[in-house]
Specification:
Blueprint (H helix, E strand, L loop, with lengths): L2 E4 L2 E4 L3 H11 L6 E4 L3 H8 L2 H8 L3 E2 L4 H9 L10 H15 L2 E6 L4 H12 L4 E6 L8 H11 L3 E5 L4 H9 L7 E4 L3 H6 L7 H5 L3 H8 L4 H4 L1 H16 L1
Helix pairs in contact: 1-5, 2-3, 4-13
Length: 243
């Protein structure tokens, strides 16, 4: 898979369909494969944290979850094929898992959220076996127990909703021990599946304005949104230096 370097992050130039096809192959393997879903904010954070940047770039698949990455790729004259959101990717994987009767472990979010998400997802994907859940409000000393629970559940897919970079750090730290086929950081997706957070309407999704809808829902996110103009400025600066 071709990669595009966006401010140090190696993003795969891939479509949603291609990403799902790759993941299907991962489920036939023996090792835990990691999928990362960076957006502009995550890349900006990684620029200040070389260890985190290495974690992102070590993932088996790095999909462009953020319209800012698509714009950046055009500025850099190496356009990505399309934006591939993490939640669309995972729901595409759910379709496959449902057909194959495979299993999922949900880890993260507030206590009780993962359980509600399982109830809702089970109605949509009745053939998926949801073999376990654990909330994201845990102490560091609990991590060993959590890894054991995940392994005992023998799930095919592990969805980690701890927020970035915590979710990526967790997967990277334990990927050599996790007995799952695919592990992916899903951010706030558990809250969407549980119904406690609404996903943007299709219009906002198709126009790349999901960030605006999220800001309307959660005005407190405005401080985080201020990083986006800085991201684009750095991309423009990189292009100028390249010339």
């Amino acid at each position: 898979m071709k990669r595009l370097n966006v401010l140090g992050a190696e993003i795969h130039c891939i479509t949603l369909e291609e990403a799902i096809l790759n993941a299907k192959e991962y489920f036939e393997g023996d090792n835990c494969r990691m999928v990362a879903t960076p957006n502009s904010e995550i890349i900006m954070n990684a620029m200040k944290d070389p260890e985190f940047m290495d974690i992102l770039n070590s993932a088996d698949m790095v999909i462009p979850d953020g319209i800012g990455l698509v714009y950046a790729s055009k500025i850099l004259k190496q356009p990505l094929k399309e934006r591939v959101t993490g939640i669309d990717f995972v729901e595409g994987i759910f379709e496959y898992l449902n057909k194959e009767g495979k299993s999922v472990f949900l880890f993260g979010s507030k206590p009780g959220i993962a359980e509600i998400a399982v109830e809702n997802l089970s109605q949509k994907y009745p053939n998926i076996k949801f073999t376990g859940t654990y909330h994201g409000y845990y102490k560091d000393t609990e991590e060993e127990k959590i890894v054991e629970l995940i392994n005992e559940a023998t799930a095919d897919l592990l969805c980690v909703a701890l927020g970035s970079p915590k979710q990526e750090r967790f997967i990277n730290k334990y990927r050599g021990r996790l007995k799952v086929k695919v592990a992916i950081g899903v951010g706030g997706s558990l809250d969407v599946w549980a119904g406690t957070l609404k996903r943007a309407p299709v219009f906002f999704q198709q126009t790349g304005l999901e960030w605006l809808y999220r800001l309307i829902q959660e005005p407190s996110r405005y401080k985080r949104m201020r990083i986006l103009p800085l991201f684009m400025f750095k991309v423009l600066l990189k292009r100028k230096k390249a010339k």
